[in-house]
Amino acid sequence: MSNPPPLLEVTDLKKHFPIHAGVFSRVSGQVHAVDGVSFRIGPGETLGLVGESGCGKSTVGRTLLKLLEPTSGTIRVAGKDITHLDAAGMLPYRQRMQMIYQDPYASLNPRMSAGEIVAESLVIHQVGTAAERRERVAALFERVGLRPEAMHAYPHEFSGGQRQRIGIARALALNPDLIVGDEPVSALDVSIQAQIINLLMDLQDELKLSYLFVAHDLAVVEHISHRVAVMYLGRIVEMTDKVSLFEMPLHPYTEALLSAVPIPKYSARARRRVILKGDVPSPINPPTGCHFHTRCPYATPRCRQDVPALREVTPGHWASCHLHDSGPMLPLRSPAA
Fold this sequence. Notes:
The chain is α/β, with parallel strands linked by helices and 337 residues long. The chain has helices spanning 57-64, 87-96, 114-124, 130-143, 160-172, 190-207, 218-224, 242-247, 252-259, and strands at residues 8-21, 26-41, 46-50, 72-77, 80-81, 97-100, 178-182, 210-214, 227-232, 235-241, 311-314, 317-319.
């Protein structure tokens, strides 16, 4: 018996933004925001997507939801190719895939009440009667930790954490299978971050949700994710389960990211700090070969010419680095010195 297809499968996804210049707005270049990304997400699984600001994490999330049209590549939901569907064709898939936005202030319409914001998608998709929608919204408010009476209040009457709970309720309204979290806790206080993360994990257990969790905070990603993909300048450079990633990084960029995670002063663990030299190259004119070679302490002449494939170095552990082309290797450095 064949295995069922993954809930989401992205293959060689690219998103390039044209640069217009001159009087006639001719295209003078391209911003390579996403430059060939591939991954899968199974039912009930959380894939964490991490990397520096500007590496293309949020663009991946918006493109796979077709909020941005992909330049090339394929997007499959439960085995069905949705890459070239128009707005009408995407309508059934809008119910299956929702998004939680980063900014709980800008993502809510200030002219609509909280109840109207959550019910909006139910109205668009013509789900239930008006009374049934009110009942559904009240139940969602309770499930995310808000009083149903708050349905009549407006966004400016809520705190940041409460607004993000409204955003979560809105994402849950249509009973989706997949939720893309675009740094959903980065704008919140640390204590509120923990509450929102725990709420998302409880909802996943209860509703069997799948998440693509976009973040730059490795501690948050380690807590919520099953697997982690590391992005650099539009490409995924490493992907594996969270335990393997944090204990045995195989890519020099991942090694540098992990070395920057703060360790408590009196912790028994120790780590040698990896300082990357130089600036992140521009996505308008990315380096040839491996995008990371301009900052990599292990770079060889081959790295400047050949693009390393994302290959399975050890079972379930994928890395895009020429250091591992000849076969499995030990981690670059032990996380503990």
